[in-house]
Amino acid sequence: MDNNNILLQNKQACLEYLTKLGINYIVHHHDPVPTINDVVKIQMTDGTAYVKNLLYVDKKSNYYLILANHTTQVGKLFWKTLGLSSGNMRLSKEEQISEALKSSKGNVNPFAVANDSNNLVKNIIIDEELTKFKKLALHPIENTTTVEISLDDLQNKFLKALNKQYTVIQLTDEASEQQLEYQKELQKDQQNLQTLAITIKKSDFSEWYQQVIRKAELIEYYDVSGCYILRPWAYFIWEQIQRYFDDLIRIEDVENTYFPMFLQAKHLNKEKTHVDGFKAEVAWVTKYGESDLNEPLAIRPTSETIMYPAFAKWVQSHRDLPLKVNQWTNIVRWEFKYPTPFIRTREFLWQEGHTAHSTKEEAVKQVYTILDFYEQVYGELLAVPVIKGIKTESEKFAGGDFTTTVETIIPQNGRGLQGATSHHLGQNFSKMFEINFEDDKKQKAYAWQTSWGLTTRSIGAMIMFHGDDKGLVLPPRIAKYQIVIIPIIHKDIDEKQLNERCEQIKQMLIKQKLRVHLDNRDNYSPGWKFNKWEQKGVPIRLEIGPGELKNNEVRVVQRFDNKKYQIKIEELNQLNQILDNIHNAMFEKAKIELNQRIKQADNWKEFMTQLNQRNTILTKWCERQQCEQQVKDKSGMESKEKDSEIDGQVQLTGSAKTLCMPLKQDEIKDGEKCFHCDQQAKRYVLWGRSY
Ligand code: 87F
């Protein structure tokens, strides 16, 4: 780096320069905030936009700096409006950021264009959304400081002084003028879907996932970003999860209920610590018809503050406890991270359970019982292995005392995925909401509470674990059709007789309580049907052709391992057992794949090596929050993950965070050190990049 070319070396220089240009700013100093997700946690003045800064580069090394509102989903089509091709654009790498801006990843900002002495940044693209805000939150060169300045000052004082060009433009595809073109593409896509097999291998993971969920007819796209249609094939899976989990919690005397989805602002704000980090995600209803509501209503992002005022009324004496309720609902959280169907969506389905107890011991026991149920849902239904653990202080639900979790690891990319959480809330909420009772000694006491949730994300984990190059592979217990019967019509076969046989077999299987479908459509070939039901992941296909008809047999083809064999009609009662075997084999295979993604490390070098090989890492740890934060920051900076951009969106940061401290773990002895800071280790913790 040639320092002579740097005009704005650091934040001091930058702030001085702003003052020199007569620009007013409000300044905030803080810890490094390398990603937009970190930035939004810093409190700004009302009416200030959090700006994400993206540096793109084309094949001819022209650079484009995009300043977008943090909630804007930056699409692709706006490049066309600029006369450019999105296919040529790549998010710039570390070296390129250094070349153009003399800056680094996590430190891209418009002030750094002052250092672009070779005039590499050809254009600055400003999100039209930003014109709606009073001020913009931007880093003056370094991400340990944020200034709030007006867009007008940025354009007409700062960029003007540097003689830099900029364009203000709509960055979202939905609103762009090319909407029609996009629609056409979608239509073409739709036609492809109907005719072609899966064209992408699982090794091309995120593309593969997008294709599988559509070809398996789980998901249809919808024109509100982050929201998806769950088609019957997917909704059936959710119903199976509901049935299974409902049966489990019924034994625990949990009762199903329904609470309203709207909540008043004053209730949402009541429990500050719990809601502060989440505020930006709350969606509001502000109008009815043409009129404004007097008081806007929040749409439930979770129901603590909706339920607990009622709990306070219902709990009077120790005889009213335990109180245990659950509800199956939708939830809205207006996330701005890139959405992924099932995994991260703005509206999702879940169950949320809330209990209140007279003793701490009872509440703690409840937390772990539910955690075991979650493990069972994943293992017994979805054949997905999970790791039970406790969240660290910084990752726990801030409103509670401790958070337990079931975590899984997606084998393809080694990313951690939180499967469900069960919280011990202590007395935090009961004190806030006056949920108290007279104990058996006539003393007033606050209830001990728990809450726990499992979402449709679990379906995403299942798809990712079991799917293969041919499409979805369903574990038998959640498959809408466990068995599909396909007649193989042949020129010298009596079609009527074949059909009768198929129907007869179908009835036999229904009697065994199997979910079976006979695909006797005559406008599709057997080959087409094989392909179709393979894509949809049906665990077993029964083929019945001339040979089978004659020999009173069926041909069995197992989806998950493609095993093929004949069985006699009188042996069809084995199918239940065969399906169980398939479940077990899928689960065992998944366990091996998960375990291969867990590595140990004793020092930083080993840690980063494992992380960059897409593994999670189990380490000895001191349990200090400061150490945790340092690992997060450092691993982000040193990350070499190439997979972190999708559609030009920085999908995930490359930094590793703690997934959980596994419940099952070896004892740590005196003198054993934290892998990172060399202080006395307390427990093992699992680190990883995560969804
Ligand atoms: C988003 C907006 C507002 C998560 C939010 O995990 C509030 C929240 O409280 C919020 N996102 N959370 C934490 C939810 C905690 C807890 N609630 C019951 C669960 C399980 C079910």
From TrEMBL:
UniProt keyword list: Aminoacyl-tRNA synthetase, ATP-binding, Ligase, Nucleotide-binding, Protein biosynthesis
Ranges of residues in domain Aminoacyl-transfer RNA synthetases class-II family profile: 237-475
Source organism (scientific name): Paramecium pentaurelia
Pfam families with a match to the protein in the record: HGTP_anticodon (PF03129), ProRS-C_1 (PF09180), tRNA-synt_2b (PF00587), tRNA_edit (PF04073)
GO terms assigned for molecular function: aminoacyl-tRNA deacylase activity; ATP binding; proline-tRNA ligase activity
PANTHER family: BIFUNCTIONAL GLUTAMATE_PROLINE--TRNA LIGASE, PROLYL-TRNA SYNTHETASE
Top-rank EC class of the record's enzyme: ligase
Alphabetical GO biological process terms: prolyl-tRNA aminoacylation
Name of the featured protein: proline--tRNA ligase
Record GO cellular component, one term: aminoacyl-tRNA synthetase multienzyme complex
The protein's Enzyme Commission number: 6.1.1.15
